[in-house]
Specification:
Pfam families: DUF2938. The chain has one domain. About 70% of the residues lie in helices and about 0% in strands. It contains six helices and no strands. Helix 1 packs across helix 3, helix 3 packs across helix 4 and helix 4 packs antiparallel against helix 6. It is globular.
């Protein structure tokens, strides 16, 4: 049960770091990030039996899709933090190390590239978007920040726990 609690704190902290980075990109350089309403729309349509879309942008909007998307975004962040603690053990929080956090963080790029983007109609690794290379770099940047967030949040937790 304690692992789940630590994963909750770690995942929320890491996801906040990822989101703060996205806000900075948008405010300073006008670089948009994923609209989590699209994630919520996708999840909503999954409950009705549709996993793949020609274009999620053209799919019928779903009730409370933005809230569903944000809840899913943070739930996914918590789930991957839990994975880190399962693989490296809860003792990782005693003295967090960089590479496990980065492996999990960058590993999370698998989800958008090979699950979400194809299901949204954007192709594998954004191959059907106007600028696939840029989309891939942005995805890697965001997930690097999530990994950095795992590391930094881990250190904050280590400080508070000891």
């Amino acid at each position: 049960m304690i692992t789940l609690f630590y994963a909750l704190v770690l995942g929320i902290g890491a996801t906040i770091v990822m989101d703060v980075f996205a806000v900075v990109l948008k405010k300073v350089w006008q670089i948009p990030s994923l609209d989590y309403a699209l994630l919520g729309r996708w999840i909503g349509h999954i409950t009705r039996g549709t996993f793949y879309h020609e274009s999620i942008l053209k799919a019928i909007p779903f009730w409370k899709e933005r809230q569903i998307g944000w809840l899913a975004h943070y739930s996914i962040g918590i789930a991957f933090a839990y994975l880190l603690l399962v693989i490296w053990g809860i003792d990782w929080l005693s003295a967090p190390t960089f590479w496990p956090a980065m492996l999990i963080g960058l590993g999370t790029t698998f989800a958008p590239w090979f699950i979400m983007q194809p299901a949204f109609g954007f192709g594998v690794a954004a191959s059907k978007t106007p600028n696939p290379s840029l989309a891939r770099v942005r995805s890697l940047q965001a997930h690097f920040m999530y990994g950095l967030g795992l590391y930094v949040t881990g250190w904050v937790m280590a400080f508070l726990l000891h």
